[in-house]
Amino acid sequence: MSNIPFQTIDWDTIPKTEHKGETGTAFWQTVQHEGLRTRIVEYSAGYLADHWCQKGHIVHCLEGEVISELETGEAFVLKKGMTYIVSDDLSSHRSVSKEGVKLLIIDGDFLQLKITK
Known about the structure:
RmlC-like_jellyroll, RmlC_Cupin_sf, 9 strands, globular, DHCW motif cupin fold protein, DHCW_cupin
């Protein structure tokens, strides 16, 4: 991961890319640095992710609410102002949004699982 100089992000200038879920659609605005990805992600109403994700994330809910389902059967509701954090390979999770949601998602090399002895 390289050093990132001070910068601001005007999200109004970042194009949205469309990503279909099993149901619904996700719209991503992505700023990519070496080893670090920062996104504003909006899930449409009725969104269900089309895969179980193993990647680590820091997810902060900006608007609405999202359910993070774990493959173990657990589910966690993230509402406006709440955040969850998980490292790579520590859970198999997917997102569900009944009414739609807007999230700030940060992920990258710093979330890789570190084995300590």
